[in-house]
Design goal:
2 domains, 16 helices, 475 residues, five-stranded mixed sheet, four-stranded mixed sheet, D-Maltodextrin-Binding Protein, domain 2, alpha/beta
Length: 475
């Protein structure tokens, strides 16, 4: 790994781990002897999970025990990551092509990702061999006694030199390890260089505020005659992560507590004003790569994996930079993905071989090159990263050197309610911004739904909220 990228990836690991550790004592799951309660949430974040459409019922209402098999069979790799069609095909045809066994890669949306393994466990027949998800996805499985201790496997993989803080996180506050680190990612902004002429006077693209982003979008609309700011608000877009990990913490300093606060009212008021300059087709965008490449959008926010195709296709046409800052800081959402083994899962030896393969430095290099997720092992050769991935690494390095950087975790402890949780945010946007309903009224009503979810799954607070003794409370 070259020195520049090594520094970026190491900083990324340290900041992500620090954010997770800050909330560990308040959010970690109980050991596997705990009763089968629920827990995690889904990303980007592949990080990219597929949230329900803002106006439809959340994914995961049904709980099928057997996902449809692929024609070729193989051990089942159940994942909340790399769900978009292009990412799933890259996993199957590039990343898993040289795996030591046939792999049936089955990415799932947030609800089914949690529901299917738990339903299989309840039915007494687990056919999933390997589970891949985000850090916050695993407490539901741990609380249900579904995950095996992978400490022996981690000992065998000691040559990977996983960051020690990641190994501590995999213990979830116990003396066991419940997952093997897999990859890491986040979300950034991208702009076509043609849009730079419209930046507000004196604005630094690497130190933007949300007020300056709104002014930039307004200037660009005036100059081009088009609304060229874009967000992935489509049915499979990751806009819920923008509300959860970027806008809310930047304005309220919280992920949950300030949902209906005066700061939140100010936030939605400001975003409604910004929406006047957002491309109206954003409600159909599932990722921002295509509208960036077509020129429909000149400024966009999205997950690095979903921005990668545009950056790779024409790296000289784009600039990358951190998301803006709000009154409470420059919030961003780090994403740690990991691999776990279900208790009673089939093909255990093959599943462990697949983890060994996926954490091999060569495979980690393939993931960085083709999917834009950064390695979590030493020895990955990233000297020949595509220019687009290098642009993303540069933006992350700038973010991590920002004095106002504010890590905001993916939701932890929501389990099968992850889809419902995302829907609360997306429906809030629909009611306030699209339907023009009264902001405080909407926030009060949606906060009740949020609190019901938190109470039902007994989810404790996660950073940047302070740890809680019981279910997190919406203030």
């Amino acid at each position: 790994m070259n020195a520049s990228l090594r520094s970026t990836v190491t900083l990324f690991a340290l900041i992500l781990a620090a954010a997770l550790v800050l909330t560990a004592c308040g959010t970690q799951a109980q050991p596997t002897s705990a009763p089968p309660t629920s827990a995690p949430a889904a990303t980007s974040a592949p990080a990219a999970t597929n949230p329900p459409a803002p106006t439809t019922a959340p994914a995961g209402n049904a709980t099928p025990t057997n996902p449809p098999p692929t024609p070729n069979g193989g051990i089942i790799f159940h994942s909340s990551q790399f769900a978009p069609v292009n990412e799933a095909e890259t996993m199957r045809n590039v990343i898993l092509k040289d795996a030591p066994m046939l792999v049936d890669f089955q990415p799932q949306a947030a609800g089914p990702f949690v529901d299917i393994p738990l339903a299989q466990q309840k039915a007494g027949k687990v056919n999933i061999a390997l589970i891949g998800g985000q850090h916050g996805d695993f407490p539901a499985f741990i609380n249900a006694g579904l995950l095996d201790d992978v400490t022996p496997l981690l000992n065998k993989l000691s040559d990977r030199k996983f960051p020690e803080t990641y190994l501590e996180l995999s213990q979830m506050g116990t003396d066991k390890h419940y997952y093997v680190p897999w990859a890491q990612a986040t979300y950034i902004m991208v702009a076509n260089k043609d849009a730079l002429q419209y930046l507000p006077q004196g604005a630094d693209i690497n130190k933007l505020t949300y007020d300056q982003l709104r002014e930039w979008a307004a200037n660009a609309q005036k100059g081009t005659g088009q609304r060229v700011l874009g967000f992935p608000v489509g049915p499979q877009g990751l806009i819920h992560r923008f509300w959860q990990g970027y806008l809310y913490p930047s304005y309220t300093g919280t992920a949950v507590g300030g949902f209906k606060s005066a700061d939140a009212v100010k936030m939605w008021t400001d975003f409604k004003e910004m929406w006047k300059y957002v491309n109206p087709a954003s409600t159909n965008y599932n990722n921002m790569s295509e509208p960036l490449q077509s020129g429909e959008v000149l400024i966009a926010w999205d997950h690095i994996a979903r921005l990668k195709p545009a950056l790779d296709a024409n790296p000289n046409q784009f600039v990358t930079f951190p998301a803006p800052a709000g009154p409470k800081g420059r919030a961003y959402m780090p994403v740690l993905t990991a691999l776990a083994l279900p208790v009673g899962g089939p093909n255990r030896a093959e599943a462990e071989q697949l983890i060994t393969y996926l954490t091999d430095p060569k495979t980690q290099t393939l993931v960085a090159q083709n999917l834009g997720f950064f390695p979590v092992v030493q020895g990955a050769d990233t000297s020949n990263l595509p220019p687009g991935v290098k642009l993303e690494a540069d933006a992350i390095a700038v973010l991590q050197s920002s004095p106002d950087a504010l890590p905001a975790l993916l939701p932890v402890g929501l389990g099968p309610k992850g889809g419902d949780w995302n829907k609360v945010y997306n429906d809030t946007f629909q009611r306030i911004v699209i339907k023009n309903e009264d902001i405080q009224t909407v926030l009060n009503e949606q906060a009740t739904l949020m609190q019901n979810i938190l109470n039902e799954v007994k989810a404790k607070c996660w950073a940047p909220d302070p740890p809680s003794d019981g279910p997190c409370q919406v203030q």
